[in-house]
Amino acid sequence: MNTIAVSRCCLQLPAGDRILSDLSVELPMGRITWLVGESGAGKSTLCNLLAGLTPARAQVTGHLDMGGGSGEPGTRGRAEECGTLGRADDCGTRGRADDCGTRGRADDCGTAGSVDLGTRRGRKLLAGMRRRGELAWAPQNAMDTFPPRLRLREWFHRAGIESPDLVPFGLENTMLERHPHELSGGQISRVSLAAALAHSPRLLVCDEPTAGLDPGQADSMVTVLDDCVRGGGAAVLAVTHDLSSMARNARPDDQVAVIFNGHIVDACSVEVFLSTRADNAYSRALAAAAPVTGAHPLPLAPDHLGGRGYREGDELRRLHEFEQLPDDLTGACPGDRSGTFPHVDRTVVRETIECDRVEWTSGDAG
Ligand SMILES: Nc1ncnc2c1ncn2[C@@H]1O[C@H](COP(=O)(O)OP(=O)(O)OP(=O)(O)O)[C@@H](O)[C@H]1O
């Protein structure tokens, strides 16, 4: 399978803090890779690094290999990645050779498939890829990326996107006439994703695409990402804390990459991750702590929050509802999700309740 590879990334701040540590991960084309891990583990730092942004004076090493080659489905030739086969204004003809960081030398452009993330030239290569839409980035704080004085339509126009369509992202196109501050946080995230996907990227990096969205909107965002992957053959790296949405919508063969302390400790399928069968103990613990069926929470309220009376009545009713769920939850998901996860071991859920532990669980936590 064709993959985009991130290899041996280290990022150390001037004060000595190491944020990313020998981080490597393969991003298969045609699949979403869900990046999960605790707050502060380094998820946004990795996303920003792949978009060509690093904290000032940070020491960075590592490579991004865009993979593929001419003629492969869904891929573009390496030379095009630095602009020599791309739009003329990307590289050279208007004195913009520095867009690809090479001053237009063909031999330098030929190495653009592998980007040295630790060099200024590498960051310029990434910037060039972003300008051409081959690499797209939907950041966590999307509001910051839109100039406050521009109406969104004008912003899209300047970004070379003449006919933006927000409807697939659950928004009216009349919103294009607004300024960024006139949208909610969730709305601006969706606009950011619309911009990121406008050029059919080869690699899409999105930082918490479902944050701030209600479950229905979150599900439709994942559907949009899924379409990008299946239709365009892109590799998608998507940060999420929303394991419920992931469980409802991800394909079983999508990938989960688990980051801990700046290092990828595990990469496995969504199915293996959510069923807590991952090889890595931290991955299993993370999955075991997740309310994977989100739409059907079990009220395991601790005594000091709800009291035993609450559990005795409501909990049993909810447990009953839980057991009525169809095995594969297909009916609860938008679009064609015939292969949709999850499989939840209800025996373990019931045992958890009976043990009166305040804890979410799915399957055997090992
Ligand atoms: N520019 C910076 N200067 C100093 N420390 C930074 C900087 N950027 C990130 N950090 C630190 O690096 C660590 C990783 O931050 P990062 O934003 O990547 O975490 P995260 O996994 O995305 O967290 P969250 O899930 O809360 O968004 C944190 O401890 C953060 O405080």
TrEMBL record:
Its main location: membrane. It holds the Pfam family ABC_tran. PROSITE patterns: ABC_TRANSPORTER_1, ABC_TRANSPORTER_2. Gene3D superfamilies: P-loop containing nucleotide triphosphate hydrolases (3.40.50.300). This is ABC-type glutathione transport system ATPase component. The lineage of its organism: Bacteria, Bacillati, Actinomycetota, Actinomycetes, Micrococcales. One of its GO terms (molecular function) is ATP binding. The keyword ATP-binding applies. InterPro entries: AAA+_ATPase, ABC_Ni/Peptide_Import, ABC_transporter-like_ATP-bd, ABC_transporter-like_CS, P-loop_NTPase. One of its GO terms (cellular component) is plasma membrane.
